[in-house]
């Protein structure tokens, strides 16, 4: 999209570290299950995909010896189906929606505005692949789903990586996902230096929903300017 921008909300020190020094913080997906996070960040479902079978579902039964169909069967009960990843992974989250409400949701006082998303993604993913050789690095938009809905009998890892609960849909998340070459259950947070973001970013912040403030320079070519709130 021609006018697409990405936004990274966070604490001022961390946002400045990313903009000026290129310090990109990769969080283990499992860390989002920490209840100390605010309501907009806490998510215990980063490693699982939960869905419910429809009430009318039927299964076809086959003879174990002949392989011939024995007709259809209905399950005795319809409970949740849960797909669980065998490995932890790293994730870096952003949004393509700017709203002052997101400062409170993300416990943030500062926002990095990325005016060239393609350039940022290329710069970030190239640096991450160099720092994590052998890992798969991907990026995409979150897919917001209700746990009461049914999607697939055979969900893939991608469904879990990008699957988010429907109540987070207003966040319009875009994420970078980094998966290891073999399963790892325990990961420590990692900082990857991707290089400064001068020339296509600026920083803004907020003191209260009605009083936006502008930060010092983050762009080598001029002053930052005010974001307009999404309608």
Order of helices and strands: EHEEEEEEHEHEEHEEEEE
Mean pLDDT: 79
Largest sheet: 5 strands, antiparallel
Tally of structural domains: 1
How much strand? Answer: 25-35%
For the termini, the CA-CA separation is 18 Å
Number of β-strand runs: 15
Q: List the strand order in the largest sheet.
A: 9-12-7-2-13
Radius of gyration: 21 Å
Query: pLDDT under 50 segments (min length 5)?
Result: 209-231
Helix content range: 10-25%
**What is the overall silhouette?**
elongated
Which class best fits the helix and strand makeup?
Answer: alpha+beta
Task: List the total number of helices.
Answer: 4
Please provide a written account of the structure.
- By secondary structure, the chain is an alpha+beta fold.
- It contains four helices and 15 strands.
- The chain has one domain.
- Strand 10, helix 4 and strand 11 form a beta-alpha-beta unit.
- It is elongated.
- The two termini are 18 Å apart.
Essential attributes:
4-stranded antiparallel beta sheet, elongated, 15 strands, 33% strand, alpha+beta, 5-stranded antiparallel beta sheet, 231 residues, disordered C terminus
Short description:
The strands form 5 sheets. Strands 9-12-7-2-13 form a 5-stranded antiparallel sheet.
SSE layout and pairings?
Layout: E1 6-10, H1 12-21, E2 23-28, E3 48-52, E4 59-62, E5 69-73, E6 80-84, E7 90-95, H2 101-105, E8 110-114, H3 117-131, E9 136-141, E10 143-145, H4 157-162, E11 163-165, E12 173-179, E13 190-193, E14 201-208, E15 211-214
Parallel strand pairs: 10-11
Antiparallel strand pairs: 1-8, 2-7, 2-13, 3-6, 4-5, 7-12, 8-14, 9-12, 14-15
